[in-house]
């Protein structure tokens, strides 16, 4: 494999020399690689340790909630990761008393937690989003469908024996070290790409939920799932949707990672430094590798754009305007390459944790509509930079009338292109109502600010769209992508102009 890799690099190099002119504008992402199939192969290879046990049953007046303990897979050797060699997970499965057996779709939410805490593995301090277990149960009851929540993706805290610092690692610190280690030796270190076990454990947990439900309920089988998750679990959601045929709908939350290399480059170019939230990727040396062939190998595995199956399923991205990791313009960079049924919702006045927002109730309404095949609004949007600023256009194409259309914007007069709640505050976004320029069509000019930058998006709100037994649920909310004007970048990193490790 190692030899193959260098052969490929050599071949690429000679191609590059021969066609230097073409390659200057060519798309490096199209290069062939051994790694495009790695996730699919890994996820669908059998697991020797897979098993699950029912460990708890709780009943409420409207549902029964079963907690399973699933042993999913073996990861890196015990000599490297100790007890984290074998992963396990808690899953709560909420089955409403009046389950609608005609509908075979369920809801599956992937979250985190810690192995040193009691089941179900997540409490207010470690669970993202907070309150997901109560939400799952209420969603199950309201939609008469089964809702499962998967905890402990990834298994943490943990440490790597090969880590010279012997740090106790969680979350990004696990992934940052792992990605760097993979890029040091891509042939031998595939399993260090932590997304592999995260996705496979999620796949195996779907197997367990499916099996458990089939045992529990006569004449009923869960066939398909809407899968959601926040942040790294949102990334897991995207990749699971890419490789698992049971997933027919995804809700990746606060994770605009389509076109991975491009969004990471833009994160730096926006501020001429990395955002602090990238700390684990910067200090582990991952970001130093951005322009190497090994980074292409990594993105061959983790970039959701490489998974064509995603074109065929429903996608609803929920993103935060003030995200500490992801600036507002990132999702727009590769969005035209995301195909098929796709929806975006940017949440204004919210950071990465979406605290104090309505994202869960709005998601419940969205699930209800999708689950019951209620036609939801269809819309198109586009944007254009002109000398005065930014033009945003939105059009509804299936005659569904929003109750409100508004422009949300925020300005950072001091520059750089920094709209994190930690920089501009949590209430920096203001809304202006827009009126139609033509039937079902809106256009707005966002003027460039006198100094600094303005970020903006247009939101469509559909009140009273979904009701359950006469009770109105939260509105549906969709938005355009968000953009930053003026369209000038303070930095432009490249192979000849590498990023520093500076963070702001
Ligand atoms: C769940 O399973 C793992 C091993 O597979 C075990 O270590 C752990 O104690 C179990 N937890 C509970 C609460 O059953
Ligand atoms: C990667 O290789 C470099 C250079 O040999 C080394 O300093 C670094 O510790 C390695 N990183 C990992 C995570 O293996």
TrEMBL record:
Swiss-Prot/TrEMBL keywords: Signal
Signal peptide: 1-24
UniProt cross-references to InterPro entries, sorted A to Z: AB_hydrolase_fold, PhoPQ-act_pathogen-rel_PqaA
Pfam families: PhoPQ_related
PANTHER family, per the entry: AUTOCRINE PROLIFERATION REPRESSOR PROTEIN A
Listed name of the protein: Autocrine proliferation repressor A-like
């Amino acid at each position: 494999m190692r030899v193959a890799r260098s052969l490929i690099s050599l071949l690429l190099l000679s191609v590059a020399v021969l066609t230097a002119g073409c390659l200057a504008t060519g798309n490096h992402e199209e290069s062939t690689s051994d790694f495009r199939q790695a996730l699919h192969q890994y996820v669908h290879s059998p697991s020797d340790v897979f098993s699950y046990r029912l460990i708890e049953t709780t009943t409420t007046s409207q549902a029964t909630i079963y907690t399973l303990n699933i042993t999913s897979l073996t990861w890196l050797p015990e000599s490297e990761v100790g007890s984290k060699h074998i992963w396990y997970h808690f899953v709560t499965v909420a089955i409403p008393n009046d389950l609608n057996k005609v509908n075979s779709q369920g809801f599956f939410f992937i979250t985190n937690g810690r192995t040193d805490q009691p089941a179900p593995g997540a409490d207010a301090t470690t669970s993202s989003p907070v309150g997901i277990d109560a939400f799952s149960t209420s969603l199950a009851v309201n939609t008469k469908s089964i809702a499962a929540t998967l905890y402990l993706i990834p298994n943490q805290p943990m440490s790597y024996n090969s880590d010279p610092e012997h740090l106790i690692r969680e979350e990004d610190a696990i992934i940052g070290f792992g990605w760097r280690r993979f890029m040091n030796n891509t042939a031998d270190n595939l399993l260090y790409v932590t997304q592999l076990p995260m996705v496979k454990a999620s796949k195996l947990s779907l197997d367990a939920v499916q099996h458990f439900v089939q045992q529990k309920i006569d004449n009923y089988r869960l066939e398909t799932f809407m899968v959601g998750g926040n942040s790294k679990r949102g990334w897991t959601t995207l990749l699971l949707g890419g490789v698992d045929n049971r997933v027919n709908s995804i809700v990746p939350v606060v994770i605009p990672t389509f076109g991975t290399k491009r969004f990471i480059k833009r994160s730096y170019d926006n501020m001429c430094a990395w955002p602090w939230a990238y700390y684990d990727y910067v200090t582990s040396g991952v970001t130093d590798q951005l322009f190497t062939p090994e980074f292409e190998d990594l993105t061959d595995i983790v970039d959701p754009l490489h998974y064509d199956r995603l074109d065929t399923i429903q996608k609803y991205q929920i993103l935060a305007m003030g995200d500490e990791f992801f600036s507002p313009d990132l999702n727009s960079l590769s969005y035209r390459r995301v195909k098929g049924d796709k929806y975006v919702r940017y949440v204004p006045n919210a950071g990465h944790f979406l605290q104090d927002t309505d994202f869960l109730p709005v998601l419940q309404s969205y699930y209800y509509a999708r689950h019951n095949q209620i036609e939801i609004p269809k819309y198109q949007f586009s944007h254009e930079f002109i000398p005065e600023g930014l033009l945003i256009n939105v059009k509804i194409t299936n005659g569904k009338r929003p109750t409100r259309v508004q422009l949300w914007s925020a300005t950072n007069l001091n520059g750089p292109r920094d709209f994190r709640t930690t920089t501009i505050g949590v209430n920096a976004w203001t809304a202006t109502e827009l009126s139609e320029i033509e039937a079902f069509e809106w256009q707005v000019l966002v003027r460039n600010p006198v100094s600094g930058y303005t970020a903006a998006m247009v939101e469509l709100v559909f009140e009273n769209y979904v009701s359950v037994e006469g009770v109105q649920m939260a509105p549906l909310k969709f938005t355009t992508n968000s953009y930053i004007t003026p369209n000038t970048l303070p930095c432009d990193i490249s192979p000849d102009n590498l990023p520093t490790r500076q963070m702001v």
